[in-house]
Structures are given as C-alpha cells and as structure tokens.
Amino acid sequence: MRAIICLKMSMALSCVLAVSVTCLGETLTDDEVRQDVQKFLTTYYCGNYGIPVLTKEVRFGGDTNRLARILAECAQTNDERVVESALEQLVKYGTFEQLPFLYSCVTNSNIGDKAIKSILRIEGITSNSVAAVRSYLSFTNAITRQQAYDRAIASRQFLGAMQNSAASTELKAAGFRAVRAFAADINTSNSVVDEALIAADDTYRYSKRRLAVMRAAYPRCFNEYQTNYVTNAINELVAYPEANLPD
Description:
Blueprint: H1 2-26, H2 30-43, H3 54-57, H4 64-74, H5 80-93, H6 99-104, H7 112-123, H8 127-138, H9 145-163, H10 169-183, H11 190-200, H12 208-217, H13 224-238
Helix pairs in contact: 2-4, 4-5, 5-7, 7-8, 7-9, 8-10, 9-10, 9-11, 10-11, 12-13
C-alpha cells in the first residue's frame, strides 16, 4: 500500500512539473526560443550521427507551430550548415505555413531533397508538389555525385508516396514521367531509380519506356557497376524481343 501511495505521489509530482515547465516555456519570447534553436542547429549539424530530438533539447512551450516558424527563419542565413540543419528539422516539424519557403528551396542543390521531403509530408501528392519534384530532379547541372544520389533517393521516396496516395491517374502519370526523365539523364544511381520505377509500376520492367530510359542513360554512366546494370537491363529488354515490348 505504501508503495502504491508513493507511486501516485510521484506521478502527481511529475504532472505538476510538466505543467510548470510548459507554462514557463509559454512565457518565452521568440528571441529566446530562437537562441535555443540556433544553439541546437550549430551544435548538432545534420551531417552528424546521433542527433538528439530537437523538442527535447530546446524550450518552445509545446508550440510546434512556432518552433517550425523559427526553424524557417533560422534557415534563411548564409551559414550553409545551419541551413541544412534547419531544413533537416523542418522535415519533421514543418507546417503549411512554411510551404512557400520550402518551395523556394527546391532548386537549391544542397537542401532541395529536404525541402521535397517536407513538402510531400505536409502537402502530399498535389499538382504543386509534383511540379516541385520535377523542378528538383531536372536541376542536374553542376551537382556533385552525392547530390545526384540525394536526388535518386528523393525520387524513390516520391514514387513510394505516390503509390500510397489517392492522387488522380493523370497526376501519378505526370509524376512517373518526371522520374523517368530524371532516370534518363543521370550518370549515377541508375539502379536506385530504375528499381524504384519497377517497384512502383508493374508494367514498367518490360516496356519500351524502360528501354528508352536505359539507352539514354547508358552513355552517361560513370562507373563500372552502373554501366553493367544499364547494359544488362538493355540486353534483357532487347531479347524480349524488343518489337514485342508494350509501350
């Protein structure tokens, strides 16, 4: 009985403390929350492993909408590490209020993948988000191999989101066309995008669409693995025979 009473007192005390902390947090000004957020962003760069949970490390009064707004404000700086860290957090906490800002980040080669992830989580598959993905994937000039890989992963995630959405057939077709155009124009991660397209569309593996993509991609492949992957795909398709492949 004594143990039960102690447990109840402990739980009551925890509730009081939680309320007290929340009330204290709600009295914080935006500047105070911003200081905490900026300290977190500069301490835990998104390229590091084992990043703690933002909402457990900063005071924000339980208002995630304000937290998201301040993250977007912090992202508008010339410090690339802070920008990347802030966008990484907006993938989790971004709201509809940040959509204009996120859309403006789509063609930024360093953070475009994070902006796309945030947009898809917040808005889902819409004509605007499909257009954003198309812009992001088509912006392939002067990007590093890592950035090309980031695009490949983003396209795979986009295809997965389309499969699980209630988007119209026309909108999904536009999304597939955007990813196929990207697959035909990359020099790395060909296998990642191709496998994602196959998984998302059971008519794609043995189709003239895939053959055209592989043929366009072949001259661009920069390493042996990707060259072999594309070559094997082409050989498999032309042996079908090619003339009998569906569109």
